[in-house]
Write a structure and sequence with these properties.
The complex is a heterodimer. Chain A is α/β, with parallel strands linked by helices. Chain A contains 9 helices and 10 strands. In chain A, the strands form 2 sheets. A 6-stranded mixed β-sheet of chain A has the order 6-7-8-3-9-10, sandwiched between helices. In chain A, helix 3 packs across helix 4 and helix 3 packs parallel to helix 5. By secondary structure, chain B is mostly helical. Chain B has a domain of about 220 residues. In chain B, about 80% of the residues lie in helices and about 0% in strands. The chains are: A alpha/beta, B mainly alpha.
Chain lengths: ~250, ~325
């Protein structure tokens, strides 16, 4: 049973065919990198996987269950987490509150109106442990908008990880980071538990070849190549797309 | 971590002390001030409650409603009509007013919650004006723009008659404290934190597994319940209800109270309500152009204190510690 299956997925924006008949099957525990030039449809694919966009046609299956009609929150509850290409955290809440909200989603007190959030010692302990684990305890009390861009990217990833997902979608986690920060984020992704299935969009080829079990290449809305790192590295068509034909 | 926990307990103690001090001061008002000024404080409490309920939407959930008077007015008409025409006692007329306000919010919520931002503002405005049109046009029931006069004060079956100003003051104080307590608890609850998350990023909340619509709907109905309570208290205070209660000017006024005081805190809107009620009473003795003055205040707040009085105080304090 595959963790995440995409069957003949298409998506049109008016006359533009952003995705055309895309099919993928990602195995449990796999690190699948999705690469392709700008406008290839990578983020559109992720938005359909997470439910933020509807597919024009085709199916998405999570552990053999058809999730195509489900809302984003319902998919999240089934263990599908994502990060965003444009950092998406809660800017005016503190880093600790950001993590608390991520943990609270799965807590049974989540819809409770009469208890005080601060009385939930277990949740606070969990949140502090989470920040400790990722070495962010020092900035726990600062508003998310006041921490560095690199830390915000980390926080985005930590929010997704706090959900204890089965499948994690990472949309260019290294976008806009300095070389040192890229090393930190890549180390962090490498340290994630092996049983988590990861699909990741990446522009940096070194990072992609470094992390991938398998790679899918998207170009103009179609999957034009799929295979392990060596196969993609030696694929003439992929080279042509990235370096241009001579 | 124990340090953080300690700070938490200390700050919640300080808040409790402030609350008790505030309640004691309010309880002493009729003993110190003349009936006219005690009446002014009653209005302040009513509008503070009204503004705080709107802030649950605007300041916490990030939903800018320009039709909040719909629930205030709906409850006022319901309670007023039941007390006047059906002779219902306060024990039934007041809860009925609140329930009708909540039902109205549930129906309006189904329509308005499909939108956000300025579209949400426009549709809440339009929906509330529908109620205004009904209140204005259905003369046989509502008395049209003459309103409904001579609504009786509540009879609690106590030895103190509510037609006396002092007993009625305590009647309002009780419900003000009860309503404010509900809001304070809701805001501090996990639900309240989820609303802040929705204000900050809806897409993030969805990706985390929150059914955002459900939270917004619940917030909409809870805010309407408290706004309804304020409307019930106001109709018993004035012994009168007219289409003005539902009008967009009333909605704009309460929105201004929230913005003037500072959205996103509960104290801010209460302060905003106090200032606006005071100004309205003061200025109305000199001119009839209160709405113009209201507009000027709005412009000044937008230019000089976009985060309201609470934001102004916080930023000057920050600057002082930096200097």
């Amino acid at each position: 049973m595959s963790a995440l299956v995409v069957e003949a997925l298409s998506r049109n924006f008016g006359g533009l065919r952003a995705l055309s008949n895309v099919s993928l099957a990602i195995e449990p525990g796999e690190r699948r990198l999705i690469i392709g030039p700008n406008g290839a449809g990578k983020t559109t694919l992720f938005n359909i996987l997470s439910g933020a966009l509807n597919a024009s046609s085709g199916k998405v299956k999570l552990f053999d269950r058809d999730i195509t009609p489900l809302a984003p929150y319902a998919r999240a509850k089934m263990g599908l987490a994502r990060t965003f290409q444009i950092t998406n955290v809660f800017p005016r809440l503190t880093v600790l509150e950001n993590v608390l909200l991520a943990l609270l989603a799965a807590d049974r007190s989540v819809f409770c109106m009469h208890q005080r959030m601060h009385d939930n010692e277990r949740l606070f302990a969990q949140a502090h442990a989470c920040l400790e684990h990722w070495n962010l305890s020092a900035i726990a009390a600062r508003p998310a908008k006041a921490i560095s861009y690199g830390e915000q990217r980390l926080l985005d990833l930590i929010l997704a990880m706090a959900m204890q997902p089965k499948v994690l979608l990472l949309d260019e986690p290294t976008a806009g980071l300095s070389a040192a920060e890229v090393v930190r984020v890549v180390g962090m992704i490498r340290s994630l538990p092996k049983e988590i299935t990861i699909a990741m969009i990446e522009h940096d080829m070194d990072v992609a070849f470094d992390l991938a079990d398998r790679i899918s290449v998207l170009h103009q809305g179609c999957v034009i190549a799929e295979g392990d790192v060596d196969a993609i590295r030696n694929n003439a068509q992929v080279t042509e797309i990235y370096l241009g034909a001579d | 971590m124990s340090d953080l926990a300690g700070r938490r307990i200390k700050s919640s103690n300080a808040a409790a002390v402030l609350w008790i001090a505030g309640a004691i001061v309010l309880a002493g008002v009729p003993l110190v001030l003349s009936p006219y000024y005690a009446g002014l404080v009653v209005q302040m409490m009513v509008f503070a409650l009204f503004a705080m309920s709107l802030d649950l939407l605007l300041g916490y959930a990030g939903m800018p409603s320009l039709g909040h008077a719909a629930y205030f007015g709906m409850a006022a008409y319901t309670t007023g009509l039941l007390a006047l025409k059906a002779g219902w006692s306060v024990w039934f007329a007041l809860p009925a007013g609140i329930v009708l306000a909540m039902l109205t919010a549930a129906v309006f919520g189904l329509l308005a919650l499909r939108t956000r931002g300025s579209y949400f503002l426009m549709i809440t405005l339009a929906l509330s004006q529908v109620l205004w049109g009904i209140a204005f046009g259905w003369r046989s029931l509502t008395g049209g723009d003459d309103g409904l006069p001579e609504i009786p004060r509540p009879d609690l079956g106590l030895p103190w008659s509510m037609s006396g100003n002092t007993p009625f003051y305590y009647f309002v104080l009780f419900f003000f404290l009860a309503g404010a307590f509900v809001l304070v608890r809701v805001v501090a609850s996990p639900f309240g934190y989820a609303l802040r998350g929705i204000r900050e990023s809806e897409t993030r909340m969805l990706a985390l597994g929150y059914d955002v619509w459900r939270y917004k709907f619940a917030a909409f109905v809870v805010a309407a319940a408290i706004a309804g309570l304020a409307g019930c208290l106001y109709v018993y205070f004035n012994r009168f209800v007219s289409p003005d209660y539902v009008h967009v000017v009333r909605s704009a006024e309460v929105l201004l109270m929230v913005i003037l005081g500072g959205a996103g805190t509960l104290v801010g809107p209460a302060v905003g309500a106090t200032v606006i009620v005071l100004l309205e009473n003061l200025i109305s003795t000199y001119t009839e152009r209160w709405v113009t003055v209201l507009g000027i205040i709005y412009v000044l707040v937008a230019l000089l204190a976009p985060n309201g009085l609470a934001g102004l105080i916080a930023s000057t304090r920050r600057e002082r510690t930096r200097a």
